[in-house]
């Protein structure tokens, strides 16, 4: 079930970035990282983790907005939706 959950979180994060919904994107990418940790195959797990990390930084890093530093911290810690909503 982790594979489909990763796919869902990736699509949701990408859609959120396209709508400039950065907090939502961070939450989805963070939750996707958590799901990727559940994958049994090491190579697939690492690939998915790298994909989530790359998407998050490329989609979020260049956008100036209030809370940018806080958003990066939330994503780096992988705390997901709960932490990011407190911004």
Would you mind describing this structure in some detail?
- By secondary structure, the chain is mostly helical.
- The chain has one domain.
- Helix content is 77%, strand content 0%.
- The protein contains 5 helices and no strands.
- Helix 1 packs antiparallel against helix 2 and helix 2 packs parallel to helix 4.
- The chain is elongated, with a radius of gyration of 12 Å.
- The termini are far apart.
How many strand elements?
A: 0
Radius of gyration: 12 Å
Domain count: the total is 1
The level of helicity is over 70%
- Global mean pLDDT: 78
- Secondary-structure-derived class: mainly alpha
Shape: elongated
The H/E string reads: HHHHH
Number of helices: 5
Strand content: under 5%
Low-confidence stretches: 79-87
Q: Roughly how many Å apart are the termini?
A: 31 Å
Largest sheet: none
């Amino acid at each position: 079930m982790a594979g489909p959950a990763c796919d869902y979180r990736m699509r949701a994060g990408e859609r959120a970035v396209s709508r400039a919904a950065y907090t939502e994107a961070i939450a989805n990418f963070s939750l996707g990282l958590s799901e990727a940790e559940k994958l049994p195959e090491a190579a697939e797990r690492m690939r998915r983790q790298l994909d989530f990390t790359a998407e998050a930084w490329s989609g979020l890093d260049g956008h100036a907005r209030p809370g940018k530093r806080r958003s990066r911290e939330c994503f780096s810690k992988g705390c997901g939706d709960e932490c990011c909503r407190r911004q």
